[in-house]
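User: Just a sanity check before I run the rest of the batch. Below are the structure tokens for the first item. I only need the designed sequence back.
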């Protein structure tokens, strides 16, 4: 039971890490593209 819990906790940790990494990169990328004129509001 304990090993199974650690496995799921590790999977959730990696999933959360990549989710927030991609979210943070998009928060930086989208305003940059708007400022360059690639995207319009």
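Assistant: Here's the designed sequence for the first item:
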């Amino acid at each position: 039971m304990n090993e199974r819990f650690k496995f799921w906790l590790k999977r959730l940790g990696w999933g959360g890490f990549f989710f927030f990494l991609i979210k943070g990169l998009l928060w930086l990328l989208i305003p940059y593209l708007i400022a360059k004129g690639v995207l319009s509001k």
